[in-house]
Design goal:
Order of helices and strands: EHEHEHEHHEEEEHEHEEHHHEHHHHHHHH
Strand order of the largest sheet: 1-2-3
Number of helices: 18
Bound molecules: glutamic acid
Largest sheet: 3 strands, parallel
Structural class: alpha/beta
Radius of gyration: 31 Å
Shape: elongated
């Protein structure tokens, strides 16, 4: 990490809307926050941004918490925006009283017409604050027509006259991107409250960040522009702004943005497909950074590797094949104790289970792939490769030379030594037909490891 100067404990939050399952890009945001909190002895809050009551679902919130816990990112606190409307109402009233939240009545079509007009006049296509000019009677007339107001936050991008905006730079030292500048005169006053009275994300987020003592807002770089307006909103509510960090986003392999609506890359789906949480965590953090993407065996190891500043500026493509490569290298090193429960669920248990795991783990991509080898060890090759005619008599002769039990790790050497002397075959011509006879495959775990697992009786049953 680069910011070694100790700024005290950090309080961070991961703030998904529970409108779908989280995907690997959301996991990146959660991880950047979680790792940052761990680096700064801080607190990790999970905040459900569920002010959109119609689209937010409890089952998605439950699933998000479950996915985070499975990844190892257990939150210290869980908060719900839907339980905090009173706090947002108070803040909205405070802003209205200060003249910083004003009622607007334009329809979407009116706004679009004006936008086009401004573009034609070579003016920036921002909202021209026309609603600020309305007198009380004009407002009353619009409301009598049945119009309901939406409410905009008056950005502090002017000296005395809100119609004479001037360049107003909001600057912050982004914990990911370094120094950033956003000009408040280049954006429209943001709508904080819709005409049906519901809150957009901006105000509730700032109110919560103040009340929850959030010290660092770490999120995707699609929020960089929002940050300018949000810093102004913190100030308008009488609070200093926290630090901000914006990481680059992940896209699909073909370059499209990830969406909670597409289930394909959801954490839940990747988990069902058998990926290890640390394969997902490693890729979600290290992709799109200057660090090399390698499989970290634990969150502590990933923490040692994590440097928020190493994220690059451009979006990073998420390639499922890369995830499989990481998974494979993790599975190859997993100890039996790490997987015994999962193996038992696949029916792999008993005296031979630990030795079996050590024999096969370097030949599989997913823990669940062990089941195929367990079937081969117990039930034989099934419909695999068949032996060439001229190998058939060789294998039959070899089977008549099988050593007596007990069998151990040396049995293979003893057997092939005897077969070599008797037949004169050696190398590939010797072991490949035996491998095919025993496993039905041309590749796989060491036969020296498999033979004691299969046993003499099991081996003889494979005699062609
Ligand atoms: N709910 C917002 C989102 O998912 C949170 C953004 C933020 O972290 O402030 O985009």
């Amino acid at each position: 990490m680069t910011d070694l100067e100790d700024t005290g404990p950090a309080t961070v939050r991961f703030a998904p809307s529970p409108t779908g399952r989280i995907h690997i890009g959301n996991a990146r945001t959660a991880l950047f926050n979680w790792l940052y909190a761990r680096q700064h002895r801080g607190e990790f809050i999970l905040r459900f941004d569920d002010t959109d009551v119609a689209r937010s679902k409890t089952e998605f919130a439950d699933a998000i918490l479950e996915d985070l816990t499975w990844l190892g990112l257990t939150p210290d606190t869980v908060a719900w925006q839907s339980k905090r409307f009173a706090a947002y109402d108070t803040a909205a009233e405070q802003l209205k009283a200060a003249g910083l939240l004003y009622a607007c009545y334009e329809t979407a079509e009116e706004l679009e017409r004006r936008r086009k007009l401004r573009l034609a006049r070579r003016l920036p296509p921002v909202y021209g604050r026309e609603a600020l000019k309305l007198g009380d009677d004009e407002r009353a007339a619009l409301e009598a027509e049945g119009r309901k107001p939406h409410w905009r936050f008056l950005l502090p991008n002017f000296a005395d006259d809100p119609f004479d905006t001037r360049r107003t730079e909001m600057r912050w030292d982004d914990v990911v991107r370094g120094p950033q500048t956003v000009d408040l005169a280049s954006m429209s006053d943001p709508v904080l409250i819709r005409e049906d009275g519901s809150y957009l994300y901006t105000l509730p987020s700032v109110v919560d960040d103040i009340e929850m003592g959030v010290t660092h807002i770490i999120r995707g770089d699609d929020h960089v522009t929002n940050t300018g307006a949000q810093i102004a909103l913190f100030k308008a509510l009488g609070s200093p702004a926290p630090a901000f960090g914006h990481h680059n986003l992940l896209t699909t392999a073909s370059g499209e943005g990830l969406s909670k609506r597409s289930n394909a890359l959801s954490i839940g789906m990747l988990r069902e497909e058998g990926y290890e949480p640390m394969a997902i965590n490693s890729l979600a953090v290290l992709i799109g950074t200057s660090e090399s993407v390698t499989a970290m065996p634990s969150l502590d190891a990933l923490l040692a590797q994590f440097n928020a500043r190493s994220a690059s500026r451009s979006a990073a493509r998420f390639d499922p094949a890369e995830l499989t490569t990481l998974n494979r290298s993790l599975v190859h090193e997993l100890a039996y104790e790490d997987v015994s429960e999962r193996l038992a669920m696949l029916g792999i248990e008993g005296d031979r289970a630990a030795a079996f795991w050590l024999a096969v783990r370097r030949n599989i991509d997913f823990v669940k792939d062990a089941a195929g080898w367990w079937r081969i060890v117990n039930d034989g090759p099934g419909s695999g490769e068949t032996l060439e005619d001229d190998d058939l008599s060789f294998v039959r002769e070899a089977f008549s030379l099988l050593p007596p039990e007990p069998w151990d790790g040396d049995t293979w050497m003893q057997w092939t030594g005897a077969v070599k002397s008797a037949t004169g075959r050696k190398g590939r011509g010797l072991f490949m037909p035996l491998r095919i006879a025993l496993t039905g495959l041309r590749q796989g775990p060491e036969l020296a490891d498999l033979m004691p697992l299969i046993g003499r009786e099991g081996t003889l049953a494979r005699r062609p």
